[in-house]
Design brief:
By secondary structure, this protein is of the alpha/beta class. It contains ten helices and seven strands.
Length: about 250
């Protein structure tokens, strides 16, 4: 991946380095509150992923391994030694690979509503089969009406994240969500704190409990009434947790 496809910002000038890895579709601005309150204690690096914010999407499909390898190279090229990592959702996928597969040394890790566990439910399997069958039946629809039919199918069976993507990003999105990274969790020995909203429907609490069991030296904090974006819903409380754990 061309490094120019990843735009980042740097804040602060501390010996301690904090890397913030946002969720899919989020940009640097969603972490402004935390940056403003942590930049005096850390040198902070935060990224816009390709296709979001100021980062352009390349002309080829990407996998989650491409994203992780870019962050790995960034750490190496900037001679960053044992950074702290704060990640949300998609950013957790990158963190799992960085530490569990590529063995990047990290001082401490905080995961908020982490993604990376792919569950194969019967309901999802049947829904996918039904969508593929209905899509095949489009050959029996007149060409003039076929586009409308297929568009309605996509709107009905696709997630909001998927529907909002440009056509050249959809293959990448599928590559990412189909990667089950749980096999790397047991290789994470970094002191880790998991923060989860009890009402998270995007990455349910059971995923957090599984990660807590699999990751060595980890703890789990659940936030009542919190959703997938618990860090935006309870910023002052989450900030206190971050400061306590990182210190």
């Amino acid at each position: 991946m061309n490094n120019s496809n990843f735009k980042y910002k740097k804040y602060g000038n501390s010996n301690k380095v904090l890397i913030i890895l946002p969720g899919w579709g989020n940009t640097r601005k969603t972490f402004d509150f935390y940056i403003n309150n942590l930049k005096d204690k850390f040198t902070i690096y935060i990224f816009d992923y390709p296709g979001f914010g100021e980062s352009l999407f390349p002309n080829n499909d990407l996998t989650i391994y491409d994203y992780a390898l870019y962050i790995k190279r960034f750490i190496e090229d900037n001679s960053i030694n044992k950074p702290y990592i704060l990640c949300h959702s998609f950013g957790c996928r990158i963190s799992i690979l960085l530490i569990g597969k590529y063995r990047v040394l990290v001082d401490k890790l905080i995961i908020i509503g982490g993604a990376g566990i792919r569950r194969h439910s019967i309901k999802r399997y049947l829904r996918t089969k039904k969508y593929k069958l209905l899509k095949k039946l489009s050959v029996f629809i007149p060409k003039k009406k076929r586009y409308i039919y297929l568009n309605k199918l996509r709107n009905k069976y696709s997630s909001n994240d998927y529907k909002d993507l440009s056509s050249n990003m959809k293959n990448t999105f599928n590559n990412i969500i189909n990667a089950d990274l749980r096999k790397y969790l047991k290789y994470i020995y970094t002191p880790s704190l998991l923060i989860w909203g009890e009402k998270d429907t995007s990455t349910p609490l059971k995923d957090g409990k599984l990660m807590n069991r699999k990751i060595n030296n980890s703890g789990l904090i659940t936030i009542k009434k919190g959703t997938h974006f618990v860090y935006l819903e309870y910023p002052f409380y989450i900030l206190k947790i971050i400061l306590f754990f990182f210190n």
